[in-house]
Amino acid sequence: MNKSKQSNIPKSGTSYSGLAFCTLVIVLASVLLQTRNSPPFNEYRSKTISSTKPYETFEEFYPHYLREHTQKTTRQWHYVGTSLFLIYILFNPILLIPISAGGLAAYSVMPFFRHLSSGLGEMGLFLIIYLIGGKLITRSFKRTLIPLLLGYSFAWIGHFYYEHNKPATFIYPTFSLMGDFRMIFDAIKRQDF
């Protein structure tokens, strides 16, 4: 009798295990950010730097990012994708938690992957953490995948069909995501749409 009554009780919309997972990742990534330049972590930092990854800071990277988006049409596709992403997140703000966890984790390990010519290590870490955290929190892969599809699909249309270059996401995924938000902020500030 108790089992039938319990099965009719609606489940909460948010999973506490997902929140705990994301919180743990954020804490660990924050500790790594604070200590990655000191022993023992600095011993594991890349000693060599790939020729495709010369930028160590976002401030160094951002002018390169803008050079990869010279055509107005490419930037407009990015604005559409970033805007749709932000609107979706506005209606699903719980996804900010796994996005923050994945983004912070990827950002914290950047110096350890600078010897690789691509951003697969960073991107893989971001996706694993975001997808696991998002699925645990929302209990839905669909809700978790939609913001990625909205943001990246429109941006990549601009790159592949108008700019005819490879998106910087493939080399600097974390900085590129930051660049998307900075570029739309700069456009709003200048009213350059």
Helix content: 55-70%
Percent range for β-strand residues: under 5%
Ends distance: 62 Å
What string gives the helices and strands in order? Answer: HHHHHHHH
The largest β sheet comes out as: none
Output the radius of gyration: 19 Å
Question: How many helices does DSSP assign?
Answer: 8
* Average pLDDT for all residues: 90
Q: What characteristic shape results from the CA principal axes?
A: globular
SS-based class: mainly alpha
Count of the domains: 1
Number of E-type strands: 0
Which SSEs are present, and which pair or pack?
Elements (H helix, E strand, L loop, with lengths): L1 H6 L8 H20 L22 H10 L4 H20 L4 H14 L10 H19 L2 H23 L9 H18 L3
Helix pairs in contact: 2-5, 2-6, 3-8, 4-7, 4-8, 5-6, 6-7
